[in-house]
Specification:
Length: 75
């Protein structure tokens, strides 16, 4: 349970956005289909968290490396 709480505390922004976007995607899919089904609209939440995690890792680890690389090229 502690692990889940740490995950929620760490990623509360993408989880909130993901829940809102998933709800919108499910509603739109239902309106288009006319019936309830399980489709790719349910992948909005995991992709939101995944993209946020990748973006955060890029900004923390990879971006400084890229900046150093381009600084060396300019000199």
């Amino acid at each position: 349970m502690k692990r889940v709480m740490r995950f929620v505390m760490k990623y509360w922004i993408p989880l909130t956005l993901g829940f809102v976007m998933t709800a919108a995607a499910v509603r739109i899919a239902y309106e288009e289909r006319g019936y309830v089904a399980v489709g790719s609209e349910w992948l909005v939440l995991p992709f939101t968290v995944l993209l946020f995690k990748w973006g955060k890792e890029f900004l923390e680890h990879d971006l400084p490396l890229w900046i150093e690389l381009f600084k060396e090229d300019e000199e």
